[in-house]
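User: For documentation purposes, I need each entry recorded in a consistent format: the amino acid sequence on its own, followed directly by the corresponding structure tokens. There are two entries in this batch. Please keep commentary to a minimum and don't merge the entries.

Assistant: Recorded as requested. Entry 1:
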Amino acid sequence: MKLKIGNPATGTDFFPRESVRNRLLRALARDHVAFVGPRRTGKTSILKNIAQDPPVGTAAVFLDLEKFSTVPEWLSALLVPTKALIAGSDKSGWLAGTGKTAKTLLARIEKLEVLGNGITLTPDRSNPDAWRPLADEFQKLLHDADLPIYFLLDEFPWYLGHLARKHTAEEVEAVLNWFRSARQDLAGGKTRFLVTGSIGLEGLLRRIGLSPTANDFDTIEIPPLTDEEALDFLMQLSKGEEIPLNEAAGSRILSLMGANWPILLELFMSELQDKELKKSPTMPELKDLYEVRMVRGSRNKYCQEMFTRLSKDELFGPTERRIAFEILKHLTTQRVVGGSDLEHIHSKIVPDEKVRSMTGDELGFVIDTLRHDGYLLRRDDGQYQFASNILRDYWIHRTA
């Protein structure tokens, strides 16, 4: 294995997470899936692995929706690989067990392409729902053909955010309603949709005044690596990059970081690689590297992005953001935050009790978002703490 910090790990650089992959595939066999978890925690790598090696008798399509900003772009991106899969089905064999003929399906796809070519995008948005006939016909094709295809849609909230910036809330709602209708129509068949990034979806819908329309997914959360997996991960990187590291030093790295996300472990190993050590690092050397290079160094883009991310509109509205900052600020001086502390923070930001009662779930939404987006960890006693040592120490460094 080689270090892959900037891009999703694939091929021999992908660390197999069979338990997560198998859980996703079991869920997809039953229903449509929301694969959720903090950013940069390995979701995309796992989806690409499924796309490259789908279960026998199925096909999989991976799409990064972050680059799309219109519905026709999205529908075209679904059509093109579907056509390619059907055209190449004689070689892969996945279509053989469906009782469908490639020739018939390809003829229908070609009609859809003609229909799609008739969609005209105009600056004045005079025909905002021009995509609907194409979407309905594509849904009908999937329903009639009952194709065993898993559509793996990465960064779905980003795509909706692009739509919201270019179009009206009503148009975004129309897309969500069609997508929900399509999922329900296909629920009894073999075609499945998986979306990632749904943790940010509720906040996005709140900001543009829409109610949640994605609560029908079977939600699967990506967990950190277990200690055993994380140590194996470090040892494989040590071997692949020829970085001297014994198991005792590997275990010390895990205790310093406080969360076994691959990106954090790779960051540490990259810093260790730059030291060009001839033998495994000592415990003082590891602690110094953690405090100087990981907490205060410039390469730790993960923590830097997590620090600046709260200032972006994709997570919170203005009041929610102030509450979130106060909670994390509290945790830079106190190890945990509990119910009474949270209520006090909320009342400090929103002093008027009537206003707080009107906003209702505001505090709960902030807590859930911070927890699911990788900032907070809920303890067994119901209190919250930073989700990792490195994030806590970085926050202390930046706010001191």
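Entry 2:
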Amino acid sequence: MVILVALIASFPALSTDLYLPALPSMSEQLGCSAWLVTLSLVVFFIFISISSLFWGPLSDKYGRKRILMAGVPLFVLSSVFCMVSQNVFQLIAARIFQATGAGAAMAVTMAIVKDVFPGRKRERTFALVSMLTGVIPVIAPSIGAFIIRLTSWRGSFGVLAVIGVLVFAFVLFLKETSTERTDLGILPTMSRLFVVLRNRDFTRLVIAFSVISIPLLGFISTSSFIFIRQFGLSEEVFSIYFGAIAVLFIVGGPVYMFLQRFYKPAPIITVCYFGCLLSGILMLTVGRLGPAPFAVSIACGYIAVSISRPPSSSLLLEQQDRDTGSASSLIQAAFLLTGSAGMLVVSLDWRDRIVVLGIMSLVLDLTGLALWLYTKRRCRMPKHFV
């Protein structure tokens, strides 16, 4: 079950990281600006977030498996259309449908974990899933660079289609995990999103945990331009740097499982905020000195967020006894929608994007820390959390 959840949770990462090395060259081959090519990345995050808000509540009504049976084939077909796109506008349109299909997978992953695993087992499961999905950003850019050498950027989307077919084969054997189904109509089912949002503790925690990831998603959209254009690295060397940074998403889960033996989850989350603040400070002080110092500054934020993800995800789901699909989709959508805003800001024609990332980190991490300290005294926490 953990491996299957990790596979379907990997769709967003695979759909972006696999063609990151090709972004600079795609603007030349498609005869468009770098901003338009980056837009194909941004719209994916926007529409995967929006679509998940529909898929999540529907999974409470129809079950997790049926949602995956609808979304994964859509992902496969749209990946093929991405591969054969003749201009950037066709590519962007195909990415919208691809994101809609991937949104189904994203919407139900956290819900499946809550369906199957209780309490501390849920936290450990999130840590394991985070570790497995963390492999994707590590290897995807290197694989993408290799595919580009063999074929072109179109080959990356062909690989995504094949991966989608394999995931669909796994889904066929998935046993339905949702035991409680709502008997409401479709519109009343969708309205449960607003019921969840009226839970103030849930909403505040979603904001607090989402804002610290905005600079990291902003980094993803501009990483190839910083490493390849600003620092003059090749696509292969960029993929090595990106993979070295992304490997921290693998170690974050095991590090959290080790730390929870000695410390409560709530203090661990608090310390992670200070790790994110350190990332912003390093970007503004040493980040522009070269690719290695910049990579170290970003790495501090990555490791802090990856360690905080298992307990924060579990705490968010703890705020809702019902409407698990709606809550899961809201959590994922908030993370990616705020990150998409960060991508749009960073992808503008700034003179120095590293400075923009550094300022963004400091402002947003301080905001998230303040909101977390305020909410943790008021929200419903399991006994083992504090």
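Summary note for entry 2:
The two ends are 29 Å apart (CA to CA).
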